[in-house]
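3.2 Worked example (two chains)
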Amino acid sequence: MGLTKTENFTDQQNELATIAKAIGHPARVAILQHLLKVDACICGDLVAEIPLAQPTISRHLQELKAVGIIKGSISGTSVNYCIDATRWREVQNQLNGLFDTYVSDQDCNC
């Protein structure tokens, strides 16, 4: 299969696909759920919560940070992570916009 030609899609479609890819891993979902629950934490807290090695968790944090869903600030030798509230609402609105385009209340007859 060839490479996706992103120029054939709208900026909104490309952005939504990028976000979906970033949250499309169960470890990243678990990280987001933990951050939503505790409001902020350091990577070591996530290692204690999620059964993955610290480098693996760090890589997942980088992916979430790359799309702006989370942000991190350095505190001594640790990085403190939290949900970026503004970006979280933007992502929520984009996903809601996609889901809201479905108007039928009946199952399709495929």
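3.2.1 Second chain
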Amino acid sequence: MTRIAILFLTLMLTACGNGPEEKPPAPLEPTSSTKGFYCGMTLAEHPGPKGQIHVAGETGPLWFSSIRDALAYLQLEGATRRVRAFHVHDMGRADWNTPQAGTWIDATQAYFVLGSRREGGMGGSEVVPFGDKAKAEAFTAGFGGRVLDYTAIRKEEMFPAKGDAGG
């Protein structure tokens, strides 16, 4: 009887679980008409890295014209919705003016340059993502800034006081 009770309890607990973990959505490529979540302008109108955040319940990703805007979304609204994936352009492989297809990386594995002199799609100092830490450090040699990993960048204030370049 005890074995039957244990088997029954195990089956019940398994049935109550969320099942196997869903695989995060793969990055998508924006079209010429894809618009930024905050600005409402097409991504193609802006230079620099872009971001896409896949949220449970949405049919497609939320698109961002700048990485700073994507990180701000996570700070301001991310706690209220379940983020399934966050992808950014790897600027160690992408062209600044028009990041090409196939250069997306998982933001949680990226290195970010904060406080550089490089302006992003929405103006102001852009947060620049890289898949390779050495390439991020090389970028800072030419444009300034500091390199942070995903955990550290999430703790940063994305909209510093006027006159503060964030670093």
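3.3 Remarks
The longest strand covers residues 83-89.
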